[in-house]
UniProtKB/TrEMBL annotation:
Primary localisation category: cytoplasm
Quaternary structure, from the entry: Homodecamer. Pentamer of dimers that assemble into a ring structure.
Miscellaneous: The active site is a conserved redox-active cysteine residue, the peroxidatic cysteine (C(P)), which makes the nucleophilic attack on the peroxide substrate. The peroxide oxidizes the C(P)-SH to cysteine sulfenic acid (C(P)-SOH), which then reacts with another cysteine residue, the resolving cysteine (C(R)), to form a disulfide bridge. The disulfide is subsequently reduced by an appropriate electron donor to complete the catalytic cycle.
Family (UniProt): Belongs to the peroxiredoxin family. AhpC/Prx1 subfamily. Belongs to the peroxiredoxin family. Prx6 subfamily.
Record's protein name: Peroxiredoxin
Length: 235
């Protein structure tokens, strides 16, 4: 997205994911077209051969199967070149053992973005943090190519991968069941049912006439959804 002054700004939740073509460690991609029908986590990191980024890529690599089981593709990006990406990922696999992780092979695409075209398109360059490196951005994009959640971290703070996975499952759950998720929700916890559309429906809820509902007041009702009903990846 651009303003009239050609200054790139961050796309917003609910926007179509900006399209681009790119060279990656897994070949050329057209984004988001190549991933239609899947959820995508598009994330940026400041630089190859840096310690925090290494721990993050090892974690993403270790969890890649978990995201795949949720019908979610991972796509990484930094403003480094392709040969740097390849050398760094080889180093991770062959040399780095950290926090019980070793021999981690990164099979998802890592975008070469030496021109910073994609990083600027997604607002990943934050001048107050760095003029020449992307911050740790995370974009959750749904199977229709719509941005659903955005997370930003500074270069010095590694991401919470449990929260990234939890957010993905929460988004899929709200879509599938037409509900909302409360604070600190985890699969298997009660979900929030949207408020009733009429006084009569609200009274029926408060009287306990709707099966499975627990109401705290007319505007706040929850119901259980078993964890095994949720982790389907919307496939």
């Amino acid at each position: 997205m651009e303003t009239n002054n050609n200054i790139n700004i961050m796309p917003r939740i609910g926007d179509k994911a900006p399209a681009f073509n790119a060279v990656t460690t897994q070949g050329n991609i057209s984004f988001p077209q190549d991933f239609k029908g899947k959820w995508v986590i598009l994330f940026s990191h400041p630089a190859d051969f840096t310690p925090v980024c290494t721990t993050e890529f090892m974690t993403f690599g270790k969890m890649a199967g978990e995201f795949e089981s949720l019908n979610c593709a991972l796509v990484g990006l930094s403003i480094d070149g392709l040969f740097s990406h390849i050398a760094w990922l080889r180093t991770i696999k062959e040399k780095i053992e950290y926090n019980g992780m070793k021999n981690i092979e990164i099979k998802f695409p890592l975008i070469e973005d030496i021109t910073m075209e994609v990083a600027n398109l997604y607002g990943m360059i934050q001048p107050g943090e760095s003029q020449t490196k992307a911050v740790r951005a995370v974009f959750f994009i749904d199977p229709e190519g719509i941005i659903r959640t955005i997370m930003y971290y500074p270069a010095s703070v590694g991401r919470n991968f449990d929260e990234i996975k939890r957010t993905l499952i929460a988004l899929q759950t709200t879509d599938k069941f037409g509900v909302a998720t409360p604070a600190d929700w985890r699969p298997g916890d009660d979900v929030i049912v949207p408020p009733a559309g009429s006084c009569g429906a609200a009274k029926e809820r408060m009287d306990g006439n709707e099966a499975g509902l627990k109401c705290y007041d007319w505007f706040f009702c929850t119901k259980p959804i078993a964890a095994e009903e949720i982790n389907t990846g919307n496939r």
